[in-house]
């Protein structure tokens, strides 16, 4: 129902437009007729002026009439121009066609004969003249009537009429417009007859065959050229691969590189052949009149994007110069900054409170900020930066990055904090959480450790910052520090004098490689248990990264020293009689006359003899 109402409203609106156009045309016709009457009246008055002599009153009266006619004519011309301008906004032109070629357009009606009907009728009459085998162009004439100029053939057939409104539409006189239409019709009919003759068709077919044969030969030559190119690639493939290998570009092996290059090469060959075929189509279509109209369209499909791209490039050139100037300013600013950073890292330039290992991290931060600032400045000069699509993509990428990079940003911030806190350096032996190893790399996101078992451990910087870090190397590298303290705890029974054990443990520590002689090792008693005493030997070393070797050697030396001193390393939880049991000291440390003690039993009477 709504659709029916819409169609009715649309029909009413179209009818109203047609009525308005019809009224406007009627007004123009009346004004045109009035103009002709005024012209006749003006001629009559001018004739009377020539005949009046000496009668000033009559002369003034006639001159006033001429002035009034001139004013009326001027006003009418202005009104006609306004009416025509109004009609041009809403009036559609209908083409007069001969064999798909447009000769001209008809815009105005003649009486009840609409512009579309006029165009179709004129087209049919011109086509009939074209079909007439005895047509002669000089048989077309112009005949002037009272209201129009008619183009007639053989003084019988009225091909078309040129009215005053037609002439007014083009701001010409009816006679001049009729002559222009006559010449157009004569030329077009003669041209079409010539183009569609049998001789011309034979020539066109021969030319088309020549174009097709030439296209085939050109494609064959292109294939031969590309075949030679394939052989050249086979010869130079290894050299190119070696060049990439020297440049440390190791994405492909030699066979994969050859396969990739051949695929790219064949795609280029196919694209070039398709381009040649496409460019030959306009030449082929331009041979035949029936397809000539497609020629411009095919060429336009290529030229339009190319010209648009060229115009865009030309328009972008001033902005490109600005972008290049901004880029080079920032580039050389960063280069100058890099020079100072390099000198600071080498120690040639010293800044109070600024450590050398801060130089490159600080440079990376400043470089990132400068490039970001440069991008902000360049952004308005980029083509399409103010388009809604470009802005929408930018917002989408921003949301995507903000949603997907929260942990990465946390690690980056932690990396910055770690850089300036300086809890460790590259090469330091550290303990981060449960992991112990040497620091191999510090990046903005992670810290990499290498354990003594050659295990690579990657620790996120956020975990480093949120947890505790032990640096074993820091005090070993300071000249004012005695070094790292390595310590071992052993438990010995109460039967061993502690002073004796102190001497033994200190001796064992001093005999250990990589242990500092000064300050001397020292022993601490860390616990008095029920059956034994806990002793802790502490010694200094400057080699934190060799703790495993130092501890192993220290354990060995403690065993040797205790065995030499006759001290058994035990943690007794009960007391037992030694009678009949071999000592726990290795045989190498026992005297040659050592004999396993026998069991001795004493009675109470033996323990308390009678008096």
Automatic annotation (TrEMBL):
Residues 487-569 form the Mechanosensitive ion channel MscS C-terminal domain. Residues 408-473 form the Mechanosensitive ion channel MscS domain. The chain crosses the membrane at residues 201-222, 267-288, 308-330, 365-382, 394-421. Pfam families: MS_channel_2nd, MS_channel_3rd. It comes from the Bacteria. Belongs to the MscS (TC 1.A.23) family. This is Transmembrane ion channel. It comes from Pelobium manganitolerans. The lineage of its organism: Bacteria, Pseudomonadati, Bacteroidota, Sphingobacteriia, Sphingobacteriales.
